[in-house]
Specification:
The protein has about 425 residues and is α/β, with parallel strands linked by helices. It has helices at about 5-15, 85-100, 115-130, 150-155, 170-175, 185-195, 225-240, 270-285, 290, 305-310, 325-330, 335-345, 355-360, 365, 380-405, 410-415, and strands at about 40-45, 50-60, 105-110, 140, 160-165, 215-220, 245-250, 320, 370. The strands form 2 sheets. Strands 1-2-3-4-5-6-7 form a 7-stranded mixed sheet. Strand 6 (about 215-220), helix 7 (about 225-240) and strand 7 (about 245-250) form a beta-alpha-beta unit. The longest helix is centred in the C-terminal third of the chain and has 22 residues, at about 380-405. The protein is globular. It binds iron/sulfur cluster (SF4). Iron/sulfur cluster (SF4) binds near residues 68, 73 and 111. The site of iron/sulfur cluster has 9 residues, from loops.
């Protein structure tokens, strides 16, 4: 049985992987409060039908033989080490599941002895869970680069989702900060998971292979790459490797004995803007080139859609009753759902501002970029519009906190993506 000391080490070390939306918070419990976001051990994931499910988040081992400069579990750090056995992880998962604490498992690992040895342990854990314990709950498994293809492919038939973390946005930074890792070892399994046929299990059915797809994670701010670079890489990975999500993790210093890394945490607003831009790439028809500024970075003052609209005044205002679906999606304050509602509603009657409010358009932002039946109610000039947009964003963040207590705005944006 996994003792409390090892359990604490393994769940605490797992909190640095943010391939789920609720990691990274520093909020601790207060004297009379309830809950504590600092403890590791639990994360949340969203199923394709929108349900939020709780996952046990744990490492198989934090006894790593690699030495990545940014990582607390690196070989050269003097930290307590622990490794669990497949049987121990299975028992823990089943025990928690039966008590209704969790609905699934997020299992990751440091490189324990070698990539293949680690992947074998992970494979054996999920095989046991599925075949011996008959566990049918959700499993997200972090794949190990450089492990044998057969192991990776077989694992893909047992888990719902797998992620190979790209870690850093360029090969140069990877070489510098994670010298034992290499780009090809990460990219090759991502490519393999995106394929429609299998080398080792040609008779098995596609629908049984990673039904929740694959994701990846990138650290932002540990290396000098711009937002434009990060978003172009993201765009490429969505297109080429059919990723479900790219997660961005703000760099947080944990090792202070190296000159290779910044001494300060990267600003959280950067992660927040990247998540917003990510939604624009996936659902709004934008390209990475369109949404980054001339300096290669996203605006910190405005969300990326507002920043793009301000950069392209010649395209606005747009008449809401005649705009194409593509252009509706580009109007700040009009989300995917509200664009659809507008298209349905305007078949029956010409829409006015009061109708748009009912259709859940965020008028505080949209009003500066639209006309309704030829009428314009936006700001008088660019300076006024910019000030009003900044004010609208501040108010929105205040409202977000009241709806999703305990979630920060980056998390909210990651959940809804309505821009
Ligand atoms: S491989 Fe690198 S990032 Fe992963 S646990 Fe080991 S040292 Fe940390």
């Amino acid at each position: 049985m996994l003792d409390e000391r090892r359990l604490n080490i393994l769940v605490d070390a797992a909190k640095y992987d943010v391939s789920c939306s609720s990691s990274g918070s520093k909020r601790q419990n207060t004297k009379n409060g309830i809950g504590n976001a600092c403890f590791g051990g639990l994360c949340h994931s969203f199923t394709p039908d929108g349900r939020c499910i709780s996952l046990l988040k744990i490492l198989m081992s934090n006894d790593c033989c690699y030495d990545c400069a940014y990582c607390t579990s690196r070989r050269s750090n003097d930290v307590p080490r622990a490794t669990a056995t497949p049987e121990e992880i299975c028992e823990l998962t089943m025990g928690f599941y039966k008590r209704n604490y969790i609905e699934g498992l997020f299992l990751s690992s440091s490189i324990f002895k070698s990539p293949n040895h680690t992947m074998e342990l992970l494979y054996e854990t999920v095989r046991k869970l599925r075949k011996e314990y008959n566990f049918n709950g959700y499993i997200h498994l972090k794949g190990i680069p450089n492990a044998d293809k057969l192991l990776i492919e077989r694992t893909g038939f047992l888990v719902d989702r797998m992620s190979f973390n790209i870690e850093l946005p360029s090969e140069k930074s990877l070489k510098l900060l994670a010298p034992q890792k290499d780009k090809n070892a990460i990219i090759t399994p991502m490519k393999m998971l995106a394929q429609d046929k299998y080398f080792y299990a040609p008779t098995l059915r596609r629908k049984d292979f990673l039904p929740a797809g694959q994701t990846t994670q990138m650290i932002v701010g540990a290396s000098p790459e711009s937002d434009a670079h990060i978003l172009k890489l993201t765009e490429f990975m969505y297109r080429t490797y059919k990723l479900k999500r790219v997660y961005y993790s703000t760099y947080t210093p944990t090792n202070f004995d190296t000159s290779l890394l910044p001494y300060e945490q990267a600003p959280l607003i950067r992660e927040h803007r990247l998540y917003q831009a990510d939604w624009l790439l996936r659902f709004y028809g934008f390209t990475a080139d369109e949404i980054t500024g001339t300096d290669g970075f996203l605006s910190t003052d405005y969300d990326p859609k507002c920043a793009w609209a301000l950069k392209n005044p010649q395209l606005f205002p747009v008449e809401i009753n005649t705009a194409s679906p593509e252009m509706l999606l580009r109007i700040p304050g009009v989300g995917v759902k509200s664009a659809y509602r507008i298209m349905q509603a305007r078949k029956h009657a010409k829409l006015d501002f009061s109708d748009l409010k009912r259709l859940r358009v965020v008028l505080k932002r949209a009003v500066h970029f639209i006309t309704c039946k030829g009428k314009f109610l936006g700001g008088a000039n660019e300076r006024v519009v910019k000030n009003l947009l900044i004010g609208a964003e501040l108010n929105q963040n205040a409202k977000q906190l009241s709806i999703f207590n305990n979630y920060d705005s980056a998390v909210f944006s990651a959940i809804t993506g309505e821009l």
